[in-house]
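Hi R.,

Here's the chain you asked about this morning:
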Amino acid sequence: GIHPLDELDHVFCSSVVGFPKPRPEFFVHVSRALGLQPNELLMVGDSLENDIEGARAAGWQAIWIQRGSAAHDLSFITQLTELATFDER
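And the predicted structure, written out as tokens:
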């Protein structure tokens, strides 16, 4: 089957980049590699600390994938396929 990540032009893995999330160096590396400003980037991740808080601290937008209950006031989706129709809540 087709995986949503198959359609992406760039995928950055922290183990390949050399800096683990939520370290700022990871987010700076990705910003520079793409030639974009932090506020132009969106992190979609399932780790509140590593993905969401790290991205927001770096000035990125962030959407949290919560595969369980959604009892938080953050932007969230429950599966990656929802990203295509995401409307910030």
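The chain has a mean pLDDT of 85.

Let me know if you need anything else.
M.
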